[in-house]
Amino acid sequence: MNDTAVSRGSRPDVDPASVTRPTIGVLALQGDIREHVAVLDLCGADPVLVRRPAELAAVDALVLPGGESTTISKLLEVFELLEPLRERLRDGMPAFGSCAGMILLADEVLDTRPDARHLSGIDMTVRRNAFGRQVDSFETDLEFAGVDGGPMRAVFIRAPWVERAGDGVEVLARVPSGPAAGRIVAVRQGAVLATSFHPEVTGDHRVHRLFVELVRDR
Ligand code: GLN
Questions:
Q1: Where do the annotations place L-glutamine binding (predicted)?
Q2: Number of the ligand 1 atom closest to the C-alpha atom of 71
């Protein structure tokens, strides 16, 4: 990638050297960790891998990658990160979860294993593997509230959707058409953001940019 210099910081009128680069952890237990690291770097953050409680304690914010939520859930317990992570979320740490990361951030999950654990970062109920077999993986263009620049390409891979969003939860995107039209696929509650799809794989960095700015504003 050779566009690092021009991509750093999203305000072209500001000298990139004077903009703080927040330290954003990427939960590195399983999933598409490297993709998030690369995009965070391009969006003006210093990404670091988080596998231990001490590493979690040192970050300004955390990204939970896509992958397999029940596996990540198990590893959170094995690596003794589950309680520390719940505590940091309760204390207001900004977080962004894509796909499996969205599932982990929910406070209730349908169609998962009975022993799966969740973080209650967002007051929502999420249905795992919600799109069913026929559209198990697909791409679409959708409107994403609060980002400029027109529709966003969204890649869904055995994705969840949000079945219930609590009162304090802002709906940022819905499926525009097809059998799942209207389903909620991006949400925000305070400084916690979640998408059913994978903005880390499309080359469109607007969601990560929004997240980095949100972290910087805290
Ligand atoms: N289906 C996966 C799960 O249940 C999520 C898929 C993904 O992250 N791409 O965790």
A1: 67-69, 128, 157-158
A2: 10
